[in-house]
Amino acid sequence: MLKINKTVVLASASPRRYNLLKQIGLSFIVHPSGLDEDSFQTSSPEEHVLTLSKKKALEVAKNYPNAIIISADTIVVLDGEIISKPKDQEEAKLMLKKLSGKTHRVYTGFTILDTKTNKIYSDFEVTDVKFREIDEDEIDEYVATGSPLDKAGAYGIQDDYGAVFVERINGCFYNVVGFPLTKFYLAMKRFLSDD
Protein backbone atom coordinates (compact mmCIF):
# COMPACT_ATOMS: atom_id res chain seq x y z
CA MET A 1 0.00 0.00 0.00
CA LEU A 2 1.13 3.54 -0.74
CA LYS A 3 1.79 5.67 2.35
CA ILE A 4 1.35 9.35 1.52
CA ASN A 5 1.50 11.94 4.31
CA LYS A 6 -0.07 14.83 2.41
CA THR A 7 -3.28 15.57 0.54
CA VAL A 8 -3.64 13.62 -2.70
CA VAL A 9 -5.77 15.20 -5.45
CA LEU A 10 -7.15 13.36 -8.46
CA ALA A 11 -7.39 15.92 -11.28
CA SER A 12 -10.14 14.00 -13.07
CA ALA A 13 -13.91 13.64 -13.01
CA SER A 14 -13.69 10.09 -14.39
CA PRO A 15 -15.57 7.59 -12.19
CA ARG A 16 -13.36 4.85 -13.63
CA ARG A 17 -10.13 6.52 -12.46
CA TYR A 18 -11.77 7.21 -9.09
CA ASN A 19 -12.63 3.53 -8.65
CA LEU A 20 -9.21 2.30 -9.79
CA LEU A 21 -7.36 4.51 -7.31
CA LYS A 22 -9.73 3.39 -4.53
CA GLN A 23 -9.00 -0.21 -5.57
CA ILE A 24 -5.32 0.23 -4.58
CA GLY A 25 -6.25 1.83 -1.25
CA LEU A 26 -5.45 5.44 -2.09
CA SER A 27 -7.17 8.24 -0.13
CA PHE A 28 -7.71 11.36 -2.22
CA ILE A 29 -9.99 14.22 -3.10
CA VAL A 30 -11.31 14.95 -6.59
CA HIS A 31 -10.70 18.26 -8.36
CA PRO A 32 -11.18 18.11 -12.16
CA SER A 33 -8.97 20.46 -14.17
CA GLY A 34 -11.71 21.85 -16.42
CA LEU A 35 -9.16 22.03 -19.25
CA ASP A 36 -10.57 22.30 -22.78
CA GLU A 37 -9.09 19.13 -24.28
CA ASP A 38 -10.56 19.62 -27.76
CA SER A 39 -8.52 22.75 -28.48
CA PHE A 40 -5.29 20.84 -28.08
CA GLN A 41 -3.22 19.61 -31.06
CA THR A 42 -0.01 17.57 -30.97
CA SER A 43 2.20 15.64 -33.35
CA SER A 44 1.91 12.16 -31.81
CA PRO A 45 -0.41 10.17 -29.51
CA GLU A 46 2.38 9.85 -26.92
CA GLU A 47 2.97 13.60 -26.87
CA HIS A 48 -0.79 14.21 -26.74
CA VAL A 49 -1.48 12.16 -23.59
CA LEU A 50 1.73 13.19 -21.82
CA THR A 51 1.25 16.90 -22.48
CA LEU A 52 -2.46 16.92 -21.62
CA SER A 53 -2.00 14.96 -18.39
CA LYS A 54 0.77 17.39 -17.40
CA LYS A 55 -1.36 20.45 -18.25
CA LYS A 56 -4.23 19.05 -16.15
CA ALA A 57 -1.93 18.50 -13.17
CA LEU A 58 -0.43 22.00 -13.42
CA GLU A 59 -3.88 23.57 -13.70
CA VAL A 60 -5.17 21.88 -10.53
CA ALA A 61 -1.88 22.43 -8.68
CA LYS A 62 -2.62 26.17 -8.53
CA ASN A 63 -5.19 25.42 -5.83
CA TYR A 64 -2.98 23.26 -3.56
CA PRO A 65 0.33 24.56 -2.13
CA ASN A 66 1.26 21.22 -0.49
CA ALA A 67 -0.31 18.22 -2.23
CA ILE A 68 0.31 15.38 -4.64
CA ILE A 69 -1.67 15.86 -7.86
CA ILE A 70 -2.51 12.84 -10.03
CA SER A 71 -3.83 13.45 -13.52
CA ALA A 72 -4.37 11.40 -16.67
CA ASP A 73 -5.52 11.56 -20.25
CA THR A 74 -6.77 8.67 -22.38
CA ILE A 75 -7.23 8.54 -26.14
CA VAL A 76 -8.02 5.89 -28.74
CA VAL A 77 -5.93 5.84 -31.92
CA LEU A 78 -7.01 4.14 -35.15
CA ASP A 79 -4.78 4.30 -38.23
CA GLY A 80 -3.00 7.34 -36.82
CA GLU A 81 -6.22 9.24 -36.05
CA ILE A 82 -6.79 10.35 -32.46
CA ILE A 83 -10.30 9.54 -31.28
CA SER A 84 -11.25 11.19 -27.99
CA LYS A 85 -14.71 11.46 -26.39
CA PRO A 86 -17.69 11.83 -28.73
CA LYS A 87 -19.48 15.19 -28.76
CA ASP A 88 -22.91 13.59 -29.20
CA GLN A 89 -24.71 10.32 -30.02
CA GLU A 90 -24.16 10.63 -33.78
CA GLU A 91 -20.41 11.02 -33.33
CA ALA A 92 -20.40 8.06 -30.92
CA LYS A 93 -22.08 5.89 -33.58
CA LEU A 94 -19.54 6.96 -36.21
CA MET A 95 -16.65 6.16 -33.86
CA LEU A 96 -17.96 2.68 -33.10
CA LYS A 97 -18.52 1.96 -36.81
CA LYS A 98 -14.89 2.98 -37.48
CA LEU A 99 -13.58 0.71 -34.71
CA SER A 100 -15.73 -2.28 -35.75
CA GLY A 101 -13.64 -5.27 -36.89
CA LYS A 102 -10.34 -3.43 -36.43
CA THR A 103 -7.48 -3.18 -33.94
CA HIS A 104 -6.94 0.20 -32.31
CA ARG A 105 -4.54 1.43 -29.66
CA VAL A 106 -5.44 2.98 -26.32
CA TYR A 107 -2.96 5.50 -24.90
CA THR A 108 -3.13 6.81 -21.36
CA GLY A 109 -0.68 9.38 -20.08
CA PHE A 110 -0.46 10.15 -16.38
CA THR A 111 1.33 12.76 -14.30
CA ILE A 112 2.31 12.87 -10.63
CA LEU A 113 3.13 16.32 -9.27
CA ASP A 114 4.28 17.38 -5.80
CA THR A 115 3.12 20.99 -5.52
CA LYS A 116 5.46 21.82 -2.63
CA THR A 117 8.69 20.70 -4.31
CA ASN A 118 7.50 21.07 -7.94
CA LYS A 119 8.76 17.54 -8.58
CA ILE A 120 6.90 16.10 -11.55
CA TYR A 121 6.82 12.73 -13.29
CA SER A 122 4.89 11.75 -16.41
CA ASP A 123 4.63 8.45 -18.28
CA PHE A 124 2.23 6.63 -20.57
CA GLU A 125 0.96 3.16 -21.43
CA VAL A 126 -0.29 1.68 -24.72
CA THR A 127 -2.68 -1.26 -25.17
CA ASP A 128 -3.85 -2.85 -28.43
CA VAL A 129 -7.58 -3.60 -28.56
CA LYS A 130 -9.22 -5.77 -31.26
CA PHE A 131 -12.93 -5.21 -31.89
CA ARG A 132 -15.13 -7.86 -33.47
CA GLU A 133 -17.52 -6.83 -36.24
CA ILE A 134 -20.38 -4.93 -34.55
CA ASP A 135 -23.95 -4.87 -35.89
CA GLU A 136 -25.57 -1.49 -36.48
CA ASP A 137 -28.41 -2.46 -34.09
CA GLU A 138 -25.89 -3.14 -31.33
CA ILE A 139 -24.26 0.25 -31.90
CA ASP A 140 -27.63 2.05 -31.83
CA GLU A 141 -28.76 0.27 -28.64
CA TYR A 142 -25.45 0.91 -26.89
CA VAL A 143 -25.30 4.60 -27.83
CA ALA A 144 -28.93 5.04 -26.71
CA THR A 145 -27.86 4.13 -23.13
CA GLY A 146 -25.71 7.29 -23.02
CA SER A 147 -22.79 5.32 -21.59
CA PRO A 148 -20.35 5.89 -24.49
CA LEU A 149 -20.60 9.68 -24.34
CA ASP A 150 -17.98 10.23 -21.61
CA LYS A 151 -15.47 7.68 -22.91
CA ALA A 152 -12.58 7.94 -25.36
CA GLY A 153 -13.47 5.93 -28.45
CA ALA A 154 -17.13 5.85 -27.33
CA TYR A 155 -16.94 2.57 -25.43
CA GLY A 156 -16.23 1.14 -22.00
CA ILE A 157 -14.53 -2.21 -21.53
CA GLN A 158 -15.20 -2.60 -17.81
CA ASP A 159 -18.74 -1.91 -16.72
CA ASP A 160 -21.20 -1.83 -19.57
CA TYR A 161 -22.31 -3.42 -22.84
CA GLY A 162 -19.21 -2.10 -24.64
CA ALA A 163 -17.28 -5.03 -23.15
CA VAL A 164 -18.84 -7.44 -25.68
CA PHE A 165 -17.34 -5.50 -28.63
CA VAL A 166 -13.80 -6.39 -27.53
CA GLU A 167 -12.47 -9.61 -29.02
CA ARG A 168 -9.06 -9.42 -27.34
CA ILE A 169 -6.50 -7.05 -25.89
CA ASN A 170 -2.72 -7.03 -25.86
CA GLY A 171 -1.35 -5.06 -22.92
CA CYS A 172 -2.67 -3.54 -19.72
CA PHE A 173 -6.44 -4.02 -19.23
CA TYR A 174 -6.69 -1.12 -16.77
CA ASN A 175 -5.12 1.19 -19.35
CA VAL A 176 -8.18 0.57 -21.54
CA VAL A 177 -10.40 1.37 -18.55
CA GLY A 178 -8.60 4.73 -18.33
CA PHE A 179 -5.65 4.36 -15.97
CA PRO A 180 -2.60 2.04 -16.22
CA LEU A 181 -2.74 0.90 -12.62
CA THR A 182 0.44 -1.18 -12.30
CA LYS A 183 2.66 1.31 -14.14
CA PHE A 184 1.21 4.16 -12.05
CA TYR A 185 1.61 2.25 -8.75
CA LEU A 186 5.28 1.47 -9.42
CA ALA A 187 5.91 5.06 -10.56
CA MET A 188 4.23 6.41 -7.43
CA LYS A 189 6.36 4.16 -5.19
CA ARG A 190 9.52 5.49 -6.86
CA PHE A 191 8.22 9.07 -6.75
CA LEU A 192 7.58 8.88 -3.00
CA SER A 193 10.86 7.08 -2.16
CA ASP A 194 12.92 9.70 -4.01
CA ASP A 195 11.93 12.40 -1.47
TrEMBL record:
Record-level Gene Ontology MF annotations: nucleoside triphosphate diphosphatase activity
This protein's UniProt keywords: Cytoplasm, Hydrolase, Nucleotide metabolism
EC number: 3.6.1.9
Signal peptide feature range: none
Keyword NAD: no
Catalytic activity: UTP + H2O = UMP + diphosphate + H(+); dTTP + H2O = dTMP + diphosphate + H(+); N(7)-methyl-GTP + H2O = N(7)-methyl-GMP + diphosphate + H(+)
Tree of life domain: Bacteria
Cellular component, GO annotation: cytoplasm
GO biological-process terms attached to the record: nucleotide metabolic process
Localization per Swiss-Prot or TrEMBL: Cytoplasm
Enzyme class, spelled out: hydrolase
Annotated site location: Important for substrate specificity: R16, T74, Q158
Any Pfam family hit: Maf
SUPFAM superfamilies: ITPase-like (SSF52972)
Active site: D73
Needed cofactors: a divalent metal cation
Chief site of localization: cytoplasm
Main function: Nucleoside triphosphate pyrophosphatase that hydrolyzes dTTP and UTP. May have a dual role in cell division arrest and in preventing the incorporation of modified nucleotides into cellular nucleic acids.
Family: Belongs to the Maf family. YhdE subfamily. Belongs to the Maf family. YceF subfamily.
Alphabetical list of PANTHER family matching this protein: BIFUNCTIONAL DTTP/UTP PYROPHOSPHATASE/METHYLTRANSFERASE PROTEIN-RELATED, BIFUNCTIONAL DTTP_UTP PYROPHOSPHATASE_METHYLTRANSFERASE PROTEIN-RELATED
Protein name: dTTP/UTP pyrophosphatase
Species of provenance: Kryptobacter tengchongensis
